Amino acid sequence: MIPVRHIDKFGVSGSVFAGMCSLELPPLVAIFPALGLGWLLEETVIDQMLFASFVIMFAGLVAGARYHRNVLALFVAAVGAGLLASSMLVFHGRATTYVGMAVLIVSSWLNDLLGRPLFYDRTHP
């Protein structure tokens, strides 16, 4: 069973993968058709994959925000998702895509950091 606290990482991974596919990075463009996965590079599939990964990511971030009672990671993820979605669907810019992916990774890291206790009790194993 996947812990609820770590489900946002799956969404961030999917968003980064969709961003890399939309950038048409040369290794992906070369490898996917060779493996018979060329249909993954179509724009409609990438847009649906991005939407699905956003849903998974925000579900995990909402669960994390309910756990640690801090919405900072959720707000940072909303900014990153907005940057990534606007760069993929409207602007088609590489710089905005990279910044959006980086902000999503930071939001997942921040969600994990906020869920940890500040001090560990060393008396218990």
Key descriptive features of the protein:
125 residues; 5 helices; mainly alpha
SSE arrangement:
Elements: H1 7-23, H2 26-34, H3 43-68, H4 72-91, H5 94-115
Helix pairs in contact: 1-3, 1-5, 3-4, 3-5, 4-5
Transmembrane segments: 12-39, 45-64, 71-91, 97-114
Protein name: MerC domain-containing protein
InterPro entries: Mercury-R_MerC
Description of the molecule:
It holds the Pfam family MerC. Keywords: Membrane, Transmembrane, Transmembrane helix. It comes from Pendulispora brunnea. This protein is mostly helical and 125 residues long. The protein has one domain. Helices cover 75% and strands 0% of the residues. α3 runs antiparallel to α4. The longest helix has 26 residues. It starts with 6 loop residues before the first helix and ends in a 10-residue tail after the last helix.
Into which percent range does the helicity of residues fall?
over 70%
- Determine Rg (CA atoms, Å): 16 Å
The number of domains? 1
Mean pLDDT: 79
Order of helices and strands: HHHHH
